Amino acid sequence: MQWTKVSGATSYKIHHKLSSGDTYTESVTLGDINSYTITGLTASTTYHVAVSASNSAGASAKSSDVSMTTDAAAVTVPATPSGL
């Protein structure tokens, strides 16, 4: 995911939840960057994601959330049989 940097921000937090009524889980605290790939989420699942910015004065409110769907789980193709 990507976001627009906030002037004066020194770090960002990524927050996610499964539905709009749920409480956010903080995924990660990041430095002064504007993109991140959240790992460890369930495949083919829609999440609501928000970002907040921080600096020495404190933290901002979370951004409006955006719905994102994770990629499907990778499929492992078995090896070709041998000795036939």
In short:
The chain is an all-beta fold and 84 residues long.
Description:
- The protein is mainly β and 84 residues long.
- The protein has a single domain (11-69), classed as Sandwich (Immunoglobulin-like), CATH 2.60.40.
- It has no helices and 5 strands.
- Strands 1, 2, 3, 4 and 5 form a 5-stranded antiparallel β-sheet that branches.
- The radius of gyration is 18 Å and the shape is elongated.
Question: Key terms for this structure?
Answer:
five-stranded antiparallel beta sheet; 5 strands; 0% helix; 84 residues; Immunoglobulin-like; mainly beta
Query: What characterizes the major β-sheet?
Result: 5 strands, antiparallel
Query: Can you count the beta strands?
Result: 5
- Give me the strand/helix succession: EEEEE
Q: Mind telling me the CATH class?
A: Mainly Beta
